[in-house]
Amino acid sequence: MIRKIGLLSLLFVLLSACSNDDADQLIAACDAPTDVTATAISHHSITITWAANDTSSSYRVEYGLSGFTVGNGTALITSNTTVLIDQLEPNTSYNVYVQNLCDTDNESLRTALYNLSTTAAPVIPEFKPQLSELNLFLGPLNSLSISPQAIPYELSTPLFTDYAHKQRLIALPAGTTMAFNGDGLPIFPDQTVIAKTFFYNNDERDLSLGQHIIETRILIKINGTWQTGNYIWNEEQTDATLDSEGSTLPVSWIDLEGTSQTANYKIPSNTDCFTCHANANTVKPIGPKLRSLNFDIDGTNQLEQWISNQQLSGVSSSASVRSLPKWDNTSVSLEERARAYMDINCAHCHIPGGHCEDLSTLNLAYETPLEDSDIVEQAFLIDYRMSFYLDGISMPLIGTSMQHTKGVDLIQSYLNTLD
């Protein structure tokens, strides 16, 4: 108690000793800025603005990665109530605060730390030397984490490629949409990028054991024309290099039954890509036909999602689009499943204008009536060309090195029902 009284007395004496001139120099701290907002957010910069609530000669803006220690960030001094923060990393969270510097000996409290994030870098619609330069993925490339600037998609019945898994995505230029054009391919705007990455899980029973990524095939629409390119992944799985030559790569994996499997995976050349993707000498995508996209994924219809997100225009409901059935959905008729399988695996060549137009009378597009498809007349030949694997003779002609046994069983079962 005696000590407390002594301290209070000492403080009283010191205050009493201050002259009026000294008291005038004890200026209250100036007010902190308010209404801090972020505008013009891009993948590499953010503009910060605020309201000044006190006379100020300048302001301090400090920023750093989210969670940075105040005082250890990057500081900017400005006399304006707005500042551009640039040279930032894309798709990254930052903290920022603003402080009034009223004079050399007087500054306000700091504003609260504001959390801000840059956008993902725009997808580059060019065939750069390395896949990473296209900005299709976030973080480590081999995570295959799709950029929010791109749209992942799946097909109801996919193309068979030696049991490889595939990740598919479409990247549209900012402010554009795909346009409805019937059940087939939508109309894609120029600078659209379509990518398909092929990989094998090391062990299908345990996905935590990783994957082996083989290639990423790219289509880019440039001045109204689709161009093809192929990126081959390096052994380190850190990036992929543009390659037009094609090659064969031995791959191995363990299937769901625990059996070791191998394949001599064929990476296509640019000539191979043209063979399958060309129709009447014009390159086109094969997979993303609207009828192949019109189905539910995790309870949500894929096309409805695109329409809702304004990524597909010219159609108000998925009900306006035919649905290509899943080839292995046994609740659908055998004929529908077999025709769907032939549509995605064979029809890019066996249609008018396709690579095999002058070599075969078959028209295997799903919408072609059976009596116009020549399937009945060519049933024996179809069965023969699919019943074994011999390079250059077996069907499909390009992109496989083995039979798809379940697919062959499906087609043979269907052919056996035909007169």
From TrEMBL:
InterPro entries hit by this protein: FN3_dom, FN3_sf, Ig-like_fold
Signal peptide: 1-23
SUPFAM superfamilies in the cross-refs: Fibronectin type III
Keyword Signal carried by entry: yes
Domain Fibronectin type-III, residue spans: 32-122
Superkingdom, natural source: Bacteria
Alphabetically ordered keywords of this record: Signal
Keyword Signal recorded: yes
Identification of the protein by name: Putative repeat protein (TIGR03806 family)
Organism: Winogradskyella arenosi
Lineage: Bacteria, Pseudomonadati, Bacteroidota, Flavobacteriia, Flavobacteriales
